Give the backbone structure.
Amino acid sequence: MSDKIDDLFKNLDNQFDVEVPNFGHQQRFLDKLNNQQITVKVASTKSSYWKPLLAVAASIVLILTITFNLKPDTSDKDLASVSPELAETQTFFANTITFELNKLNTEKSPETEKLVNDALLRLGQLENEYKTLKLNLTESGEDQRVIYAMITNFQNRIDLLQSTLLQIEAIKTLKQNNYETTL
């Protein structure tokens, strides 16, 4: 009998579905499941005295199951939800980015408008990447690689803002030098 089973598995080799589904597969499946309209026809039967008691018992069991099996909401999982140290890190990066962004907005002028707009566009792309990383963190169960990618994303945003500010400073210096030489 074991020979037949071994032969069966040899014949089915490389036919098993072992691929990992695409990112967001579970959410798309749940959305499709929730969007289905299910109709249930209830056959009329004689009512009996035990059905209301059964409904009450089922409700109590459902409430107890929900109460004791509640999982924390992980829809907005970010660095702050992993550890207190990472919460401090996230706060530091967020404050730094806000500070640099305010400096960038104050430096906006007709000469630097294109440079500032390009930086803001790239910053938006990095924000979208961060949102994707937050979803990955939720799905991966706090994988260290995702945490490092999130920190790198913060660093990239700060680097982008600082390099844009340096370029604006260079433009202002060049403009001032040109103005001085024309006088």
In short: The radius of gyration is 29 Å. The helical segments are 2-11, 25-35, 50-68, 84-106, 113-140, 144-182. DSSP finds six helices and no strands in the chain. The chain has a mean pLDDT of 79.
